[in-house]
Amino acid sequence: MNQLPAYIQNRPSRGLAARVSQNLGTSAPPYLSILGGKFTLVDAAGNEQLIPTYEGDPNKVMRGQAAGPYADVLIIDVNDHISRIFYDVDFDPNAQSYQPPACFSHNGIGPSKLSAKPQAPTCAACPNAVWGSATSNVSGKGIPACAQYQFISVLVAGHDTPFLLRIPPNSLKNYRAYAEQFRGQQFDMDQVITRLSFISQGTLAFIPFDWAPADMLGKSDTLILAKATDAMVGRLDTPIQGALLAPTTVPATPIAAPPAPAAAAPLRSTDPVGAATPAALAASSAPSNGRRRRNTAAAAEQAAPQQAAQAPFMPQPNPAAPANPPAAGPSFGMPPSVPPNPELAATLDNLFGPAK
Questions:
Q1: Which of 57, 62, 258, 355 is least buried, going by the fewest C-beta atoms within 10 A?
Q2: Which residues pair with 200 in a beta bridge?
Q3: What stretches of the chain show up as alpha helix (H) in DSSP?
Q4: 108 located within any domain
Q5: What pLDDT is recorded for position 339?
Q6: 143 assigned to some structural domain
């Protein structure tokens, strides 16, 4: 159906689909899952494909990080705010499907207007954002019940589609330290291939591995220019109620008048000015469930109008992470593990300092 019937061509649209997307969100964006200590690409249709790259020598340490699964990515976009996600039910890793979060925010102000159960008017006033409002199952220490994530968008070699990566709370310190290495440099992290690996279960390491190839930089420029990653990282999220500016009123000031006759009327003053106005806020994004692999949220990220096409992968079984490097070269995702360029590694070490 490439040609519209003549009687439909000039019929104006009432924007029904756009209104549904605004209310309910759209399908989940492609994302890079780190569940189970593996790197898995999940497309918009929920099909999964394991990234098979693996540093297989258990006695080898690559620039300060132990051997294991890894993924080489180009970071192309980052949300300007930390995302907050709150679940009112415990996570069941054996569940066939996972519930979306009760409350979430990507806007840095308050619960998203797509939150199912907003917990407070603002994130700053929310009791679930307080340290000690929950207890870590791993450390036994107090943590916020509403977890913090950094949403970023990455490119993977061999794919034109960007993928969402939700950096979990226990990896934020490592990510911040990685970003600090680029401050003051003549280049940024969107020009360097970042190698993701695991320090421990669910805790990521970030390593500068290589300069980004020209073709990936070209794809990145095209996507950013089209704002194709805005919805993915949560930039379009809107608080559930707009924050109003505090009203400002200028006191009435008497108007200076020329001399008047003795019977002149009394002087009059001006009316107050400066009524309160609503703050301009962005359009909303939909929730992203950091603990799901297939369909990450019931109301998923609202796609930007310019969002790149997202063709699903061919459905394939999801194998467990290999104990040894794959015998044959992968037909999907990143190329097999290769040693870093010695000259480039030395250059990166000079720029960043050696990995500790």
A1: 258
A2: 203
A3: 6-9, 16-24, 172-180, 214-225, 230-233, 342-352
A4: no
A5: 52
A6: no
- Let me know: does 77 contact 229? Beta carbons within 8 Å: yes
| Predicted local distance difference test score (pLDDT) of residue 211 | 95
165 occurs within a structural domain: yes
Rounded Cα distance between 58 and 91, Å, is 32
Q: How many Å separate Cα 261 from the centre of its chain?
A: 72
The CA–CA distances, whole Å, from 356 to 62, 64, 75, 207 equal 11, 6, 22, 11
How many Å separate Cα 241 from the centre of its chain? 22
For residue 288, which of 304, 303, 276, 301 has the smallest C-alpha distance?
Answer: 301
CA dist list (Å): 168 to 45, 207, 286: 23, 17, 18
Q: Cα separation of 99 and 268, whole Å?
A: 63
Both structure tokens of 196: 């993701």
Looking at the structure of the chain, the number of domains it has is 1
Q: Show the domain range for 76.
A: 35-81+152-237+279-317
Point out the residues of the chain with pLDDT beneath 50.
1, 61-62, 64, 243-338, 355-356
What are 95-130's pLDDT values in tens digits? 666 678 999 999 999 999 999 999 999 999 999 999
Token pair for 26: 């759209």
Q: What is the pLDDT of residue 331?
A: 36
Rounded Cα–Cα distance for residues 159 and 151 (Å): 19
pLDDT at 115: 93
How many other C-beta atoms lie within 10 A of the C-beta of residue 103? 24
Q: How far apart are CA 66 and CA 197, in angstroms?
A: 9
Dist CA 290 CA 167 (whole Å): 9
Question: Residue 115, SS3?
Answer: coil
What pTM does this model have?
0.65
SS3 of residue 126 by DSSP: coil
Structure tokens at 239: 């608080």
Instruction: Kindly state whether residue 116 falls inside one of the protein's structural domains.
Output: no
